[in-house]
């Protein structure tokens, strides 16, 4: 894989999709449909998906593409593939809360190695460079050249005073019980894959997710966190979270800075 080309294309497509998403977001009204799994989908999901999938297929025709919004891609089997969630946090989008993201990732041998997470309503973009290290770009975001880049890295956590980030829409008692095993200084919430990015920048130390997610929800954030020195492990046995599973469904997991002393499930 030509990583320079990959990163350039992923970043540009994320921005193009983000522009289209914001056109719909800023409109007076938009339709919301319900998919077969009872999750919502909007015209923004579908428009962003077309922009990204068309662009990736044109640039990398020989690479398997998995995208949330195209069910016919979900039967693909590969260890190395591109994976897309064109609008993660659809509920946040519908309620105009801003915590939604565009997510594009490249998985190699079951490991997300390159990715971009773009939060257009918040003006935040995180991505991996060609060398695999992660940066945050500050706007204005030009499509064909990156702006100012800041290297990001995970925290050196104080295990007696941890900062925890948890889901805004999917908190439950099991998550709270697990968080209760730690000495927590403060907690923050965020929607979508931004939680990975907050750990990647050191704004949080740990992100436990005891709920259903799919690989397209997590791959890009996982890549950004890994490129910032972080880890994503299974909740049950704390082995690395891998990708290319048969149904693309994830087990519960924990994203964290390596200095966090993980508690058992």
What does this structure look like?
The chain has about 260 residues and is α+β, with helices and mostly antiparallel strands. About 25% of the residues lie in helices and about 30% in strands. The protein is built from six helices and 16 strands. The chain has helices at about 5-25, 45-60, 90-95, 175-180, 195-200, 215-225; strands at about 30-35, 40, 65, 80-90, 100-110, 110-120, 125-130, 135-140, 150, 160-165, 185-190, 205-210, 215, 230-235, 250, 255. Helix 4 links the parallel strand 10 and strand 11 (about 185-190). The longest helix is centred in the N-terminal third of the chain and has 23 residues, at about 5-25. It is globular.
Brief description of this entry?
The chain is an alpha+beta fold and 265 residues long. It is built from 6 helices and 16 strands.
Task: For this entry, give a set of tags.
265 residues; alpha+beta; seven-stranded mixed beta sheet; 6 helices; 16 strands; 29% strand
Question: What is the count of β-strands?
Answer: 16
- Compute the CA-based radius of gyration: 17 Å
Order of helices and strands: HEEHEEHEEEEEEHEHEEHEEE
Count of runs of 4 or more consecutive helical residues: 6
Report helical residue fraction: 25-40%
Structural class: alpha+beta
Low-confidence stretches: none
> Mean pLDDT across all residues, rounded?
93
In one word, what is the shape?
Answer: globular
